[in-house]
Give the backbone structure.
Amino acid sequence: MENRLVSEILNLKNEKDAIILAHSYQPPEIQDIADQVGDSLQLSRAAASTGSSVIVFCGVRFMAETAHILSPGKRVLLPETDAGCPLADCIEVQALRSMQEMYPDALTVLYVNSPADVKAESYACCTSANALEVVESVPSDEIIFAPDRNLGTFVSRKSVKTIRIWNGACRCHATADMENMRAVMEEWPDAELLVHPETPPEVWELAHAVLGTGGMIRHVAESCSQRFIIGTEEGMVYRLRTLYPEREFRTGGNIYCPDMKKITLQKILDSLKNLGPVIELDSEIRKNAYDAVAKMTEITG
Ligand code: CIZ
């Protein structure tokens, strides 16, 4: 059944001039059929640079929106419209505007895990990998950082700027199971614990390094350790095992995102057949959101 679906998807993909992009938090069978697996920004850049006219984005809505923001001439499909992100849903335009009125001298730095219309109200976007660099580079000593409070706290501990932090969080990272993490560490005392900055500060204190998914991949490449405990969404463990089959990886903290698992092989096939559901944005919102993403690229290269 799975083999039949996979060959139908691969045939249709060529027929429809499509490329399949999958986030590292996607289930194994989706990562296996993707043309590229990566973090949200990497994938959006891949969408912009590909010669294919159709992008099947296997991730959650804000990621597919970012791909559309960077490549408006292409058809970006999100195979499951209901694949959302509770962190992105923690913020909306009116509420951000109220905070901006409270701090009129602050510039807004917005984590890419946010809706397109809120990106459009921001000065610059950032990812978990470049948040500190973006905050340090924007021309203001006062910053509104949104929507993730843990990433905001992580940045504020390293920056001398005044950071006004939005009180949002990723439901699955913010509730990382510390007991499970400690138990796995006890079972693998020689392992390095790598955790995501969306986890709370008490988790960082246990960790060898606090990194986004791209940073975790680079860290493993440079480390001499054989074993790693991964404190981010469990899909990342499959990604790391694929990249480094000679090393050992386990999840720590039971971090599982139900939205990331809403995309299935059947939904990808249906999406290719129907060339939908398509991501569409108001053109003014898309343009202003593009400016905020472009500002990040200007800063970080
Ligand atoms: O933006 C991304 O890709 C996410 C959700 C995590 C990361 O650290 O790359």
Q: What stands out?
A: The pocket of (~{Z})-2-methylbut-2-enedioic acid is lined by residues 39-40, 112-113, 127-128, 196, 212-214 (CB under 6 Å). The chain has three domains: 2-84+260-281, 87-170+285-298, 177-254. The CA atoms of residues 17 and 51 lie 9 Å apart.
